[in-house]
Structure formats: structure tokens, C-alpha cells
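Hi team, as promised in this morning's meeting, here are the two structures we talked about. I've kept the exact order from the run log so nobody has to guess. The first one is mostly here for context; it's the second one we should focus on when we meet again. Sequence first, then the predicted C-alpha cells.
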Amino acid sequence: MTRSTLAAVGAALALLSFSSVAAQQQNMQKSDSATAARLTVTRDTLQAILQRVDSAIGPDSTKGDDRARALGRQIRGRLSRGDFQPGDRIRLQVDSEAQLTDTFPVGPSQELVLPIVGVVSLHGILRSELQGDMTRELGRFLRDPVVQAWPLIRVSVVGEVNKPGYYLLPPTSVVSDVLTAAGGPSQSALVEKMWVERNGNRILEGQDLEQTIAAGRTLDDADIRPGDKFVVPAQGISNTFEIVRTVSILLSIPLTIYALTQIFKK
């Protein structure tokens, strides 16, 4: 084998090795991005992902993958500001304290205003930290409180369900709980054609959605986000007509947000 042939083989092997490393890095980045987007991700996990992102970018923040830099900014913002936005809702259950067992809105400064306790700041708090944070905060006013806290996300259900509307559920509830909250499918519902959309784009449908429900995956596992819409079409009716009809129903009634109380008893 000549030197030129050996050089060519070496270059080809080096190129294959580089391509393999690049593919592994891309797969790792996709996995990290999906994990960082989860509603119930922990602070330790986010910090570990951020460390990998920073290592990949290097000391010069102007270099590296744009997506990696965007992911780094996203994680830093989440770690700094926390997860809770004005208008979000939180379900509390405090044993022996009926006034504190209710659903409370998050105020304009990322705060809760609670009976007995007063103002509790949620700035910098992740959803995964809510239980511990609320236990500590209430422990300042109550002796050894037994606290359960659920961050809620709002989704809408339109189409052939018995109670179309807007619903608040914990991200740890299973996907099928959304239909339960909406009173279940109507007799004319074509459940197997149901889909989930976000900003007008379908994000989950068909066999993927069926498998998600059958496997008992949670809203967080299924990447359901606040504001997502579940659409249940009717048999023999076009999807476009069904969406228009059900949206008009929603607009004709007061905006009511329901909490599925059965979930909090599990």
C-alpha cells in the first residue's frame, strides 16, 4: 500500500471519527434540550446540562452552536427567574388548615398571597422545588405543617367532549386525565383521531397519542405545555368545521378554569 493510499485511508478514518463524534454531540444536545424543557426538571439536572453546554461552547461565548448558546440562555433564565409566571395557579393542601387548602393564583411579582401567611415569593423557584419551598415557608408560621403543593398547567379541550373548556391539571397527571376533566368524550366523538396542538400546529396525534395514553404517560412526559389544546373531532364531521364550532362554544361562555379535584386525592 502506497503512502498516498495510507494517507487517504487515514483521512477517511479521521473524517468518520469526526462525523461520529459530531453525531453523538448532536444527539446529546437534543436529549439535553428535551430534558431542560421538562416542566418538573430539577435544579441539579439543569445545572448539569448547563455545565455540558458551557463546556461545548468554550470560553469564547461568540463561538459554538447557536442552539447550544440559546439552550444555555434558556437554562440560566429558568434557574434565575424560576418557573412561575403571573396568572399561573397553584393547588395547596395543608392538613388542619382549611383556609390554606385551595387553589391560589400567582401574582404580578411572582408571589402568592395566602391566608394566615401573607405574601410568599416564588421568584427563582422551579416547579420541582415547590413542595419543599412551600413547606419551609408555611413552617415559619405553622408548627410542623403537612403540606402538599401542586403546580398547575392550563390546557383547553374542544370538540366532542361533554364539558369543553379550560382545565388546570398538575404536570404529573396522566394524559387521559385531560379527557376525564372534560367530562369524557361524547357519543359522537372520534377519539382515535384526537390530536394536541400548540400555536395552531399539531404536536401529538394518531398512533403516537394513542401509545402515550395507553402507556399512562404524564403530561410532562408527553411534553404537554401550558396553553396546549386537545381537539376531539366528531364522526362524519370535518375537522375544520368541528374546530370552528367548538371554539365558538368556548367564546360564548365565561372563561372558567376548572381544577380536577379527583387528581389531588390520588
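And here is the second protein, the one for discussion:
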Amino acid sequence: MPQFICNVCGKKSGWTGEKLQRDQPSCAACGSNVRTRGLIHALSLELFGCSLPLPDFPRVRSLRGLGASDPGDYAEALAAKFDYRNTFYDKAPRLDITRPPEGESGLYDFLVSSDVFEHTAPPAGDAFRGACRLLNDHGVLLMTVPYQIDAPQNEHFPELHEFGLARIGDKTVLVNSTRDGRTEVFGSLVFHASFGGPALEMREFSEDGLKALLAGAGFREVRFYGEDYLPYGIANAESWSLPVAARKGPFHFGVESAREIVEQWREVRQKLDSEMRTLNQSWAFRVGRKLGWF
């Protein structure tokens, strides 16, 4: 049976080679789906210019990252590799991406968000402007959101102001009081599964709408990662709702980051040289090399 290496946990998984649904767990070891693996694939390419499994990321503590309700399967790994902090809207450590603290403006090299921006309060542009403010001049936002290619963007509650959820019979409705005092009642609500509990969908994005929102927030370059990458089991069944990278400017390593990577390479090289010296002292290894066994 064909296999892929899960770039979230680094383990091998059997696979028939078929296209994979966005949120269908497909790694036998950690349960990652193609959406998560695509997001980590995009993050690796944006930071290092090549795709590495997350366990093989170099340790660069001078790179600062921020998570917006990232799941633990990769949040803990990112924290081990970078100066990374995960945050949440509804529990500590808290972060409202629509109104980030002024003291954190421009602090981060990257921000990771998986299916969060469709749940932020309107207007949608506030969340993207908040993300842009948090990033430094060469920072990058890595994100996924559900979006359509041809359908128009749809804001479900455009005048949301003071609101709450209520049960009427067997249905949940949203009751909103607009800024001008009108009362609105919305049925047919859509909730997404979330590790923190059901999350209300505030909008349906379109691809063009996403591009416009990101450009309006101050991002200079937007890339949709639509290419499959079969070695990591990234074989998307859909051509929409794919990982997105939005940059404020060209990424580059600072002197401190470059030093950390070079020192790690030196440590690996020294360890390899030491192991080779030990092997060369073995009579069996020397004979095997001469005979072409190694």
C-alpha cells in the first residue's frame, strides 16, 4: 500500500492515493487532515523555502510566531521550535484578533490561523487588519478559511451589534439589536465543530473577497496553496478552501536567526563526523567499504 509521511507528526501512514476531503482525518498516528498538513506545508515553504516535516524544522528561537486558537497537535511543536505563543478568544491566553493590543504591534514574524476568520465579528476587515498590525514588516499570515470560488461573499449578520442566542422550540436563533435600535432575528444558523465548542459561522468567504480583504488590510502578496504534495498526503479533493499565505513584505532571516541555523548545522556535522570516526575504527566497516557494501 502507498504511504505518506505526515508532516505534522513525522510518522508514516498507509494511503490508497485517493483525493482527501478537507477535514477528514487521514494520518493513522496523529489524526491530522489534509487541511492541517497543507497549512504546515505552506508555513515551511514561507519560512524556509522548502517543505519540511514539522519535527524536522530547525530550532530558531529568534523567530517569533503567534497562534490564533491553534490545535495542540502542532501548537506544542511550534512552541518547541520558535518563540511561539498560542492564543484564544474565549480563554487564557486571550487575544481578540479584531482588536490586538497596541503593545504587540509589529512583534511577530508569522501568524497561524486555522478556520478562525469566518467566526470573527463583523466587519470582516477588522480581523485582517488586526493580523496585519501584529506582524512585522516581513511577516506572513498563514491561514485557512472555508471559501467558495464563484459564489459571492456573504456576511450573515452585517449589522451585528448587541446580540445573543436563544432557543425557540427545537431551534437556536440569533437576536440582534442594531446600532440604530432595530431588532433582528436570524434562524438557520450554521455552527462549526471546534475543540472549544460549537462556533457560529459569521460569513461565507469567496476567493476574490479574501484577496480584497487581505489587500485592504495591508498585505502586499497573497498566495493560495492549491498544489498537491503527495509525499505528505496532501491531495485535495476540492479546489477551494485551501491554505493561504499573505505577506506584508519579502521574508528574510535576521542575523540572529541565521546564526542559530548555522550553529545547529555545525552541531549535526560534528556529530556525524564523530560517528564516522567511530565507524572507521571498526574492522568490519572498513572491509565493508572496500567491498562496496556501504
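Starting points for discussion:
The chain has two domains: 3-155+201-252, 157-190.
The two ends are 28 Å apart (CA to CA).
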